[in-house]
Structures are given as C-alpha cells and as structure tokens.
Amino acid sequence: MLGNCEKVEHLITNITETELSDLAELFKVFGDSTRIRILYDLFEKEKNVTEICDDLEMNQSAVSHQLKILKTSKLIQARRDGKAMYYSLADDHVKTIIAMGKEHIEE
After folding, report:
1. Average pLDDT score over the chain
2. Angle of helix 49-56 relative to helix 60-72, nearest 10 degrees?
3. Pick from 99, 87, 79, 96: nearest CA to 52
4. pTM to 2 decimals?
5. What's the chain look like in SS3?
6. Tens digits of per-residue pLDDT, 47-86?
7. Element at 47 (helix H, strand E)
C-alpha cells in the first residue's frame, strides 16, 4: 500500500496530456467565487435552486447558470422531485478539494 507522498509521486509521473488538460479544466471551475459559494452551501445537505438563491442572495438565473457548469464538471449532482430539482455535492472529493485549497491559503 502506498503512503500519501508515494501516491502523489505516482499520480504526477503517470499523467497523460489528456489528464493534464482535464485537470486544468477542473481547476478553472474552481476559479469562480460564486461556484465556490454554491459548493459551500451544499456541504451539509441537498438544496433546491430557491434555497440556494436565498442563501447566497442571488437571482435564479445567475445561480442556475453556475449550477449547470458545476453539474457539467461533475462536482454536483441533481435529482428531480416533482417539479423541483435538488442539488448536492457529487461526492466527498469535492469537500476534500475545497478543504485542501482552504488549508493551503491559510498557511
């Protein structure tokens, strides 16, 4: 079993050009503070668009646009309940990425 440093080294030395490009695209998604705010808002539980809009004090059009980008990037998932769509983080990796970024900027 590999330790953390060995895992990182393995990932770095075995990355393809396609993976580098995909990784760059993923990090671009994190380059918008509104998207980060939406991700933070979904940390505890799933929410519908209206709840997210209320929490962030933003209009539905702006939030919906960012939700589409986050969903396309596979950072969030959506489920339908009647007419409402509920959004949640795609998996715990999203929390880990944000937590590591926050830790980095606090150093």
Report:
1. 92
2. 110
3. 87
4. 0.84
5. CCCHHHHHHHHHHCCCHHHHHHHHHHHHHCCCHHHHHHHHHCCCCCEEHHHHHHHHCCCHHHHHHHHHHHHHCCCEEEEEECCEEEEEECCHHHHHHHHHHHHHHHC
6. 999 999 999 999 999 999 999 999 999 999 999 999 999 9
7. strand 47-48
